[in-house]
Amino acid sequence: MILISISIAIYGGMSFYVGKRLYQGLAVLFPYINSILFAAIFTLIASTLFVGIMPVPVMVRRLAFRIGAHWIGFFVYLFLLFLCADVVVFLGSITTLIAQPGTARFYTTLAAVLLTVILVIYGRYNARRIRHVHYEIQTKTASFPSGIKIVLISDVHFGAVNSEKNLARIVKGINDLKPDLVCIAGDIFNDDVDLIRDPFGAIRLFRKINATYGVYASLGNHDGGVDLGKMLAFLEESNITVLKDEHAVIDGRLVLIGRLDRSPIGGFGGLERKDITDVLALIDAQERGLPIVVMDHNPAAIKEYGNKVDVILSGHTHGGQVFPATLLTKALFTVHYGHYQKDADSPHMVVTSGISTWGMPMRIGSNNEIVSITLH
Predict the structure, then answer these.
(1) Which single residue of 77, 122, 160, 181 could bond 116 by disulfide (Cβ 3.0 to 4.6 Å)?
(2) pTM score
């Protein structure tokens, strides 16, 4: 509760700053603008983030989430650019490089707003694009003469704004790669199943995925809580096998493990994440010589595995999704994106930036992607 209160206070303070700067700029262009009306409209838009999590009708929550998700994209860049503009004007005024700070503040405000609009438009456009990334990986425990192709996606975030729009293209993109195995490394949902606009349509599309050995998934931090039962039923209807700290043997050629996320929002209905040693102990003796591939949503868990597995497939970070968060995830995670192997005895780790967006429906400095991995 204290953390929530602090977060609301910080957001409130930032919103006051952004609102004040916007009003100052508008007041120059429109001297008769009504300050009370502006404050009311601004507060209403800024508050949609909180309406979306209240116990209100689904249609109201959907609308609030849509407005709030787009607003936060504008808000983040307005705040950062206004702050940069004010620093420039302040330094310019105390060094006398700027003779008229008031005029400079107006033009920097205008520039900040225009640049924000450009960034948001680009971010929305880029969030509709899907790129394909490929990695070749040599396993240390066995070899595949002709290779085995794994297609990896993560962070679908069904229920988030625009999360269903790309699904037909995602399924086509997966099928075009002719995968042997499809892995979905968590955050298939966005906490609330009721926010999915067309769940039956999504299920029909998922069923169209063609993979020689099937489609498997692990659960991410947004795939839990009170809707866990609905989520698992959705995935079962979609012909997707969920591994909950369990394993499956794929064609007698590799062992696939799906981990429960380390910090699920709302929990996994009593299920607890096991130690990796306990998970591996469930593998039959004759199968322990096979390559082991693990789906673990959060790449921060890399240190848990030592040299016990061959490949770890993760998502979660979104590659930062929007700059400058891309710098933050790079600093926080040993691997925030891409293919990594510490040394020859360590597992390969592949972290995807995800196939969709969370929060703001924008991508700036990162991409939606489908990853294909050929194991040798």
Answers:
(1) 77
(2) 0.93
